[in-house]
Amino acid sequence: MRRSSGIAIAVAVGSVAVVAPIWISIQLAWNEALANAKSRVQNHASLLVRRSEEAESQLNHAKSLLNAVHFPPCSPEEVALMQQLAVTSNYIQAIGRVSYNQLTCSSLRTSAPIDIGPANLITENGAEERFNVWIFKAQTHPLLVISEDGLAFIVDSSLMEDLPETGPGITVGIFVPSQRQPDLISTANGGIPTSWLRTIPKGSSTTFLDDGYVVSIVRAQQADIAAVAAYPSIYIGQQLQPFAFIFIPLGLICACGLAWAVAHISRIRLSLPAALRSAAKRKEFYVEYQPIINLETLRFVGAEALVRWRRSGRVVRPDEFIPAAEESGVITLITACVAEIVAADLPHLLAIDPDFHIAINLSGPDFLTTDTVNLLRDVLATSHARPCNLHVEATERCFLQADHSRWMIALIRSLGIAVSIDDFGTGYSSLSCLETLGLDALKIDKSFVETIGTDGATSQVVPHIIDMAHSLELVIVAEGIETATQASFLRSRGVHFAQGWLFGKPMNLASLCASLHAQQAVESTKVLG
After folding, report:
1. Residue 252: what pLDDT?
2. Whether 44 contacts 163, CB under 8 Å
3. Which of 424, 432, 431 is nearest to 477 (CA)?
4. pLDDT for position 430
5. Under-50 pLDDT residues of the chain
6. DSSP designation for 187
7. How far is Cα 58 from Cα 64, in angstroms, rounded to an integer?
8. Is 0.70 topped by the overall pTM?
9. DSSP assignment of 403-422, as one string?
């Protein structure tokens, strides 16, 4: 009996060992596929909204020009200007004057009025919109006509809806959200039920499942326009089929190798990311401060907070653990540790020099969450520091998602905290990218600084970086200065600040405070002398 019970338990445990990994893996795969589908439809809807906003911007620009020149309505001069504006627009097909539901004249240069029918709706901005207008003989699909103040703009909405990589079954559409019962202005790749056309706050988005579809709605920030994109959930199920051929054998392997799995899990728990997570919880990280000096006065004006890790009595080099921390996402916990230390250290430094600042390094994962902004806000509140006493540095890799980066930089700068691009020249940044990010400072990477005064292939890069930073009116900080020649060259080129062993190695708080006290003593002696 006991043996039978033991066999039953063994069978049950073996069955669970086979079924559970398969079920969990498929469930996780489904959730991931669903998340990817939600992200995909939201991206499509967001892109459609951006294109709609671009189209409205072109309409407003054309309307402003036509009203500004004061040409007589339908005069040859006005018609010629209409033609010019239509040709140079991405979305406007034609422009004309409208009266009593007719185009009395237009850039099409037709002799007779063109009937465009009554308006389907009036937006909250007072513009009349007509959805299904047929004007051209060779026209294959209806056009959109938007009229306001006697001017009519003929728009081909299919140009906005021609999205890249739409894929099978993805339906997109545009509607006016201010209407009590919204109706589609246009749609592509299939029909969209009116039940999906939900009114949401301006500048927001929502994603939901409905009747076998993943649906996303995005509403413009200013324009009275919203976009909807839908993706059949059946395609998500089809994407899971290949997983079955992987997970079933894996389940069998798990049943036979449970002991190996336990050992493997134990090794994973002791892996570097797990050790870093544990170290963050146990506060094993500490900070050293790399002084930042004014190249003209050679005064210590700030310091960069450099994270250090002491593990089992040994100091682990940053290049040994930072990449793993960034890849695993644990870096956000480390950033929080650094911020907590800086918040505690800042009052000691500001008591000596109220204008001193500390720079905290942010990583790519830090730039993906608004928790980072709250973290910086907490540093200011805890330390009672002014925003100018705290700077933020981020490498070029943090700015790969330009739109999101601009938003995060704006949030941080709204606190009064300056943002610098660190290790410039080692990543992908270009002049056009720097112009739009809204940065305060640029740090020249030490790999370029060390070529100053040499015949190295990159020795001419530094002057170009400096010229570019000056043109963008960015504060410049040079890293890794080790010789007086390098310092002199950079000073002569108008570089404002510098770091490097020539001026001071990374040091603890006590040493930094002592250096600031010594600096003040020297300055006081000069004043008295």
Report:
1. 57
2. yes
3. 424
4. 53
5. 1-11, 14, 259-260, 262-270
6. E
7. 10
8. no
9. HHHHHHHHHHHHTT-EEEEE
pLDDT for the residue 270: 47
How many C-beta neighbours within 10 Å does residue 184 have? 18
**Residues found in the chain:** 529
CB atoms closer than 10 angstroms to residue 261: 14
Yes or no: say if 230 and 215 are a contact pair by the CB < 8 Å rule.
Answer: yes
133-161: string of b/e by CB count within 10 Å (b at 16+)? Answer: bebeeeeeebbbbbbbeebbbbbbbeebb
Determine the pLDDT at residue 320: 83
Token pair of 118 as six digits? 């009554």
The residue type at 132: N
Facing residues of 362 across strands?
394
Strands (E), 280-328: 285-294, 300-311, 314-316
> Alpha-carbon distance 506 to 317, whole Å?
13
Helices (H), ranges, 450-507: 461-471, 484-492
d(CA 283, CA 281) in angstroms, rounded, equals 6
Question: What is the SS3 assignment for 502?
Answer: coil
User: Which residues are CB-neighbours of 375 under 8 A, at least 6 positions away?
Assistant: 335, 336, 339
Question: How many whole angstroms separate alpha carbon 239 and alpha carbon 34?
Answer: 10
Distance separating alpha carbons of residues 10 and 54, to the nearest angstrom: 65
Q: Nearest 5°: phi and psi at 462? A: -55, -50
Quick one: DSSP state of residue 63? H
Per the listing, tokens 């008591």 go with 351
Contact between residue 22 and residue 144 where contact means Cβ atoms under 8 Å apart: no
Of 221, 173, 207, 202, residue with least CA distance to 41: 207
- Over its C-alpha atoms, the chain yields an Rg (Å, rounded) of 31
Run of H or E including 130? strand 128-133
Listed in sequence order, the residues at least 6 apart from 132 whose beta carbon sits closer than 8 Å to its beta carbon are 120, 142
DSSP state, 495?
-
Residue where the block lists tokens 């997983």: 243
Instruction: Compute the C-alpha angle 374/377/378, nearest 5°.
Output: 90
DSSP tag of 162: -
Q: Is 434 exposed, middle or buried (0-12, 13-18, 19+ CB in 10 A)?
A: buried
Question: Which runs of consecutive H residues, i.e. helices, occur in 143-215?
Answer: 157-161
Please say whether the beta carbons of 40 and 34 come within 8 A: no
∠ CA 360-366-368, nearest 5°, is 145
Residue 367: is it exposed, middle or buried by C-beta count within 10 angstroms (0-12/13-18/19+)?
buried
HEC per residue, 213-278: EEEEEEECCCCCCEEEEEEEHHHHHHHHHHHHHHHHHHHHHHHHCHHHHHHHHHHHHCCHHHHHHH
